[in-house]
Design a protein that fits this description.
Length: 236
């Protein structure tokens, strides 16, 4: 089935419909979440707006399942202040020297706290510190660290206390589903040590706006960290 407007058409196609009324692909998706379902059972679907992730809740006979939805070629998984992310690093026992290196490469102004008088674009700055970039990516891409971040970015959210066990993603004209376990295994295989950027597997970490010309209007965006997943179809 084609869905012209993503993801609303997908949601509307399933919401408040009986299982027997769904398309073959939709039935397959629902069956992955509900092993036991009858033709007359009604499926309720709604979007939950939290942080930058798109989370869907499915309800069948008061049994609720949650899934993270991917629908964009450049999926935004995380958007928050840089020091909130630093708090996550500390919580996960990253060393202070690692955090300092991360901040140096995030700001690209030769300081750890955004006070430099000279700002460079990422490519130019990283060329000055290739060994630091590679060392940081090696640590970020250790399997245990990747697993933790996959959980954090796709299957957890601080603003809701929900158990997210599925990943739903757009594939051409339909949507497909993976279990949390399947997704973590597939993503953790895509280690990225050598890119000229900050990567946790396929996830790219970047400032929302570099603001190289010190424009006061956009300065606050410089301190916002984005985590994007470009071309997720090549991974899953």
């Amino acid at each position: 089935m084609k869905y012209k407007k993503y993801p609303n058409d997908f949601i509307n196609s399933i919401n408040n419909k009986k299982y027997i009324e769904l398309s073959k692909d939709e039935k397959k998706l629902i069956k992955e979440m509900y092993e036991t379902i009858e033709d007359e059972d009604v499926i309720k679907v709604k979007k939950i707006y939290v942080s930058s992730k798109k989370i869907l809740s499915f309800n069948v006979n008061q049994k609720v399942r949650y899934a993270t939805l991917l629908s964009d070629e450049c999926e935004l998984l995380y958007e928050d202040g840089i020091y909130h992310f630093v708090t996550l690093l500390k919580k996960n026992k990253y060393s202070q020297s690692f955090i300092n290196n991360f901040l140096l490469l995030f700001w690209c102004d030769f300081t750890l706290n955004n006070t430099g008088k000279r700002r460079l674009d990422v490519s130019s700055f990283f060329k000055l510190y290739p060994n630091r970039v590679m060392e940081m990516n090696k640590i970020f891409n250790q399997t245990i660290n990747m697993m933790n971040f996959i959980d954090c970015l796709l299957f957890q959210d601080e603003k809701i206390e929900k158990k997210i066990d599925y990943l739903i993603y757009k594939d051409n004209d339909t949507f497909k589903i993976m279990s949390k376990k399947e997704a973590k295994i597939a993503i953790s295989m895509k280690k990225n040590y050598k890119s000229n950027g900050i990567y946790i597997g396929p996830f790219c970490l970047q400032s929302k706006r570099r603001n190289l010309d010190f424009n006061k209007k956009y300065e606050y965006r410089r301190s916002i960290l984005l985590v994007r997943w470009y071309n997720y179809k090549s991974v899953i």
